[in-house]
Amino acid sequence: MSLAFVTSQDYRTIDPDLPLLLEASRAAGTDAEIVVWDDAGVDWAAYDAVVVRSCWDYVARREEFLAWAEAVPRLHNSAEVLAWSTDKVYLEQLQDAGVPIIETRWDVGPGEDIGDHAEWVVKPTISAGSRDTARWGTRDEVWAHSAELIGAGRTSMTQPYVSSVDDEGETAMLLFDGIFSHAIRKGALLAPGEGVVQDRDSRESITPRTPSDAQLALSASVIDMTCEILGLDEPPLYARIDLVTAPDGSPQLIELELAEPSVFLPQSDGGAERFVEAVLARVG
User: Fold this and answer.
1) 168 flagged as catalytic
2) Which one of 6, 151, 166, 208 is at 20 to 30 Å from 248 when CA atoms are compared?
3) What is the pLDDT of residues 96-138, one digit of tens each?
């Protein structure tokens, strides 16, 4: 049995999840190694499972990345899932299926309605790590940021800033093979008035969190709806479901990460072992 955990060149020594996955794989009696997705010398067919992890350079090379995914056998998550998940327009489909998401407007132009809110968040639909994302306090700033993204040939999304994030943070729900593994709290990343900042990793605050029943129920619903939308016979191997608390206290979906999310294994108890068990179950 041989597993490949796939990363990108710049992140292979930075992703804190990877060493734990290697350790858990070897403890399970399975050969595993870390490989770089665009390394032309890799024989992908030699692995029993190829698991996409920290391919965090894909944003500027998305078409190349997806073409690579189409060519790799036994890939998790699948190329179809990666293509769908790496463009946040998928939120429209989930909303249409009944999943509560943050109020979202797409490609707003100057003067267009963006709702009556104290603050807004503007970001491109294809991005990672809060790149090209900002929190704004005026309509003019929102319209200008959206216009800049559209002018660059990108799709923009505008959402009200959810004030509960400043105190509660976001809740990231980690599911492996559709089964809840663990949850963490992510502290607020977007500071008011700072504009677009490309590197916010250094300010991340990650701690374990016990989810509520409502968060667990919504996470299960998100996976069910995703399987229905994509026609999947089984849930994605891994999923990170990022939730925030709405003004009425209910959870809302902010993002569904099925491509290359951090799964916060250092902040979990047994998460790496559960992840590897899910991989091995797929291999059969």
Assistant:
1) no
2) 208
3) 999 999 999 999 999 999 999 999 999 999 987 778 899 999 9
CA 5 to chain centre: 17
Chain center to CA of 283:
24
Summarize pLDDT for 37-79 with one digit per residue, the tens: 999 999 999 999 999 999 999 999 999 999 999 999 999 999 9
Q: Are 169 and 186 in contact (CB under 8 A)?
A: yes
Does the domain made of 90-100+163-267 have the CATH classification 3.30.470.20?
Answer: yes
Extents of the domains making up the chain: 2-85, 90-100+163-267, 105-160
Residue 64 known to be catalytic: no
From 119, 257, 260, 273, active-site residue: 257
At the topology level, CATH places domain 105-160 in Dna Ligase; domain 1 (3.30.1490)
For domain 2-85, say whether CATH 3.40.50.20 is its number.
Answer: yes
Active site residue 260: no
Domain pair 90-100+163-267 / 105-160, same fold: no
Identify the active-site residue in 135, 185, 209, 240: 240
The rounded Cα 244 to chain-centroid distance in angstroms is 14
Q: Choosing from 92, 194, 203, 228, which is the catalytic residue?
A: 203
Q: Between β-strands 2-7 and 49-54, what pairing exists: parallel, antiparallel or unpaired?
A: parallel
- Considering the entire predicted model, what is its pTM? 0.94
